[in-house]
Design brief:
By secondary structure, the protein is an alpha+beta fold. It has one domain: Ubiquitin-like (UB roll) (Roll). It contains 1 helix and 5 strands, in the order ββαβββ. A hairpin with a 5-residue loop joins strand 3 and strand 4. The radius of gyration is 12 Å and the shape is globular. The mean pLDDT is 93.
Amino acid sequence: MATQIVMDHTGDTRHIFEPTDLKAVVKAEHRFRQLTSVGFTAAVRTESGDVAVTRSFDPKAEETLFFPRLVGG
């Protein structure tokens, strides 16, 4: 199972999908593109446990975290 975690002002929302389910992958990729197009940053955990920003959808990523653009002030 793969998980997309979306952080926002309400907390977090988790979207779990099976990477072998084509319909679920299409929906997850659409969510990825939609969120990144409105300014969310996507990050994935690497095999070594580090976190790396990603600009492309990877259905094999176990966990993708989306966090909104931070505004200073």
